[in-house]
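Researcher: I'm preparing a figure for a lab meeting and need a structural model of a single chain. I don't have an experimental structure, so a prediction will have to do for now. The sequence is pasted below. Please return the structure as C-alpha cells so I can convert it later.
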Amino acid sequence: MSGFLNKIPLEDIEVGMKAQYSQTITDADIKAFAGISGDRNPVHLDEDYATESRFKKRIAHGLMTASYFSAIFGTKIPGEGCVYVSQNLRFKRPVYIGDTVTAIIEVLRVDLEKKRVFFKTVCKVKNKIVTDGEAEIYIP
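Model: Understood. Here is the structure written out cell by cell.
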C-alpha cells in the first residue's frame, strides 16, 4: 500500500502549507459514529429529545468533525506514516445533519530535530468556524 497515499518528506513541509477535506454530515454518519465511539447521547440520536434541547434538532458529535483532521494528516500533510501526538479543541457552534464540514489544517511550525509538525486546525460550516484548535504530529 505504500505510495498509494500522499507523503510529504519532513524537510519539505513549510510554515503556511495548508490542506483541507470536506464531508456532508448524514444521519448514517452520526449513527455510525455513535456506535464506534459509544457516545449515544440522545442529542445526537433522538429527534424528540434534541427538539427540546438548546440546539432544537439533532447535532453531530463534535469529535466526529474533529476526526476529519486525522483524514488530512494521514493522506495529505504530512501523509502516510505520521502519528498524532496531541490535539486541543474548542467547539464553537453545533453541526447539524446536512451541514457540509470543511476541515482545514495549516502548518504553524516544523521541528526537524524532534520530527514534529505543529498545525492550526479549523472546521467550518458555511464559512463559520465550528471547531478550532492546534495539533502536533510526529513523523517517523
